[in-house]
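Predict structure. Input: UEV domain-containing protein, 459 residues.
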Amino acid sequence: MAVNLKDIKSHMKGYRLMDLAARDVQASLQHYKDLKIGSDNYIHNDGRKEMLFRLKGTIPVSFRGNNYNIPIIIWVQRTHPQINPIVFVTPTPEMSINPSRFVDHSGRVYLPYISEWKQGKSDLATLIQILCATFADNIPVYSRQQAATGYNQPGSYRPPSAGGGAYRPPHAHPPPQPQPGYNPYPQAQHPPYPQPGGQPGYPGPTPYPVQASMPTPGGYQPQPAPYPTGGYNQPPYPSPQGHPGGGYPPGPSGYIPPYPQPGGVVNAQPQMSAEEERRKKEEEERERAKENRISLESAVEDKIKRQLQNIMERAEDEMKALNDTQKKLKDNNEKLTKMLREMETKQNEVNSSIDTLRQKTAEVDSIIEYLESQPDEFNIDEAIVATNPVHNQILRLYAEENAIDDTIYYLGEALRRGVITSEAFLKHVRDLSRRQFMARATIIKAREASKLPPHGIPG
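Output follows.
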């Protein structure tokens, strides 16, 4: 079941780049579904305790033709993806850390990809792929050796004694034959690796090798402990050395018990010649190199796909922005073209007005020149002549009406200054007003006779 961003962000309270970190985690969970999200207190080397998001579970590792589920925990720091995550191998009680140049005794993982972490170029999914490829060459955990006695019940285990024999992987040196009077404890092939409760994200019981104890003095021969042989879907974890024939040294007796066949039947391994052993090792090396190459090719392919997807997304965003810009430029171009056409029309109108103005100016100059050439005894009344008698009458009455207005104004000024008395002022104003009324009435009739608009009536 896919984990949504809301569930991931619920464990990332206080993260600076929560959206980027949550999307990175979600992308890694699409490929590695045995990892579970959560948050817990992480104690730094300086003793600081900090609540961090973590991915906890198993990742698949192919080691020498067998598939193992390696338990890990990935701590995502609060400034992720600006800073690298912290990775630990978390062995179960039945496992031990196998230190190497990539994993220290505490289980912390050191990789160039982690130390050279860069935002935008590094992500959790690629980190986990590199972990799978690295652990395929350097297995980080191994199964602890345990001894079985004749009184053990099926599925019961206890830690090995100090001088007990050690598990030797198949195809190692052939074991010596037991001495007369001793019956070694047989070992079931690929004994199960117990996991109480069926922990989520982990497979079922995992087979693991056990130790053979020393023979009992006095001729007592214990029975082998019956181990379940069915229902296991994972091979035993390798020995600490991780190489064929690299088991623990034998016990004080120098005896190594035989490796039995399935079902508890003890069969002696056939003697393998040096040539067959060499060919077997070469075949294993070729198989391991092939698996490593396939794993690295898959990691590189996924990395390239993600980078291409990011490039395509950025290109699509850029194309969208360019299309928007092009649309705006096109709209503005249409507006500018319209404005240019309007400006051209206005320019033509202005040029026409300039020509008209020049023509009228020339006419005025001609009239001024004519008037200046006339003698000084110029009769102003003869300068303005209408086209017909009615218009002449309207012009004369209009001039009379305005003259009466001016006369009444100056009579008021004379009264204000005390030049005339109020009786004389009223007498003259009454006569002038009567004449002005008659002039206006005559103008109205004359305009109606000439079919002129009435709004031209003064006053």
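The chain has eight helices and eight strands.
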